[in-house]
Specification:
Elements (H helix, E strand, L loop, with lengths): L2 E6 L2 E6 L4 H7 L23 E4 L5 E3 L10 E3 L3 H17 L14 H8 L16 E2 L5 E4 L8 H10 L4 E4 L6 E4 L16 H5 L5 E3 L12 H11 L6 H5 L1
Parallel strand pairs: 1-5
Antiparallel strand pairs: 1-2, 3-4, 3-5, 6-7, 7-10, 8-9
Length: 244
């Protein structure tokens, strides 16, 4: 592991060579919008909202999966990037059936917040109106695939933190969707532990708790950082059993 020096938006910063550009920016108080990223989970670069410009290259790079290099010059907030991010939010809005006024996470939705941030007032591309199923077979939770943006946070938290791997992705292109086990009703899943972690990390109203009213449910993800840090520090390990 080496310490590198680079510039982000003209500001000299330092970071480790095994960290992402997103992590380094966050450490220095530089905000980069994201949807699929969540501290404590692996990064997959799915949403592309964290795209940044790197001097000397015409390409855009996802900050969550790009490693720094010595002397690298990074820009995170240019007119080009703002335009791309607005287009991404616009595509996400057109690909699903997002009815904010009747959603239980209205005013608590990350996609909605980014729509405000990018000043998205209308969608200029045709809506696809996909016919996605709502699965309410689980005793406590509901998955509404109409509001899913395929960030895969639920897949990763179930696999990496809970260890159940109930969720996965099936299909290709616009037909992609989140499924439980081998595409069976969530309520019949034998792998699901009903922990609710997937519901809490979902950035939209795709995964919700039963009984929540419109604009009533607020997702909280702080638990994830607590769990991951505790595991890394082995705070939950029985010392006596280790010694044996």
């Amino acid at each position: 592991m080496a310490i590198l020096t680079l510039t982000i938006n003209g500001e000299h910063v330092s970071g480790k060579d095994d960290e992402s550009l997103l992590a380094i920016a966050q450490q220095h108080g530089i905000r980069i919008p994201t949807l699929c990223h969540l501290d404590g989970l692996s990064d997959v670069g799915a949403c592309r909202l964290c795209l940044v410009e790197i001097e000397g290259s015409p390409k855009l790079f996802p900050a969550c999966t790009t490693r720094p290099q010595e002397g690298m010059a990074v820009s995170t907030d240019t007119e080009r990037l703002r335009r791309y991010r607005r287009i991404i939010i616009e595509f996400l809005a057109s690909e699903g059936n997002h009815q904010c006024a009747v959603c239980v996470v209205n005013n608590h939705c990350e996609l909605q917040n980014l729509s405000y941030e990018t000043r998205l007032t209308h969608v200029s591309v045709p809506y696809l109106y996909p016919k996605k199923e709502l699965d309410a077979s689980h005793e406590n939770f509901i998955i509404d695939r109409n509001r899913c943006i395929l960030c895969t946070r639920c897949v990763r938290v179930c696999h990496e933190v809970e260890g159940a791997h109930t969720w996965d992705i099936a299909g290709r292109g616009i037909a992609c969707e989140i499924i439980s086990d081998l595409n069976q009703p969530w309520g019949t899943s034998e792998s699901c532990t009903s922990c609710g972690k997937c519901v809490l990390v979902c950035p939209t109203g795709a995964l919700i708790e039963k009984g929540e009213a419109v604009a009533e449910m607020e997702k909280k993800t702080d638990f994830l950082r607590y769990i991951v840090n505790a595991r890394r520090k082995r705070e939950w390990v029985n010392v006596d059993s280790d010694e044996e």
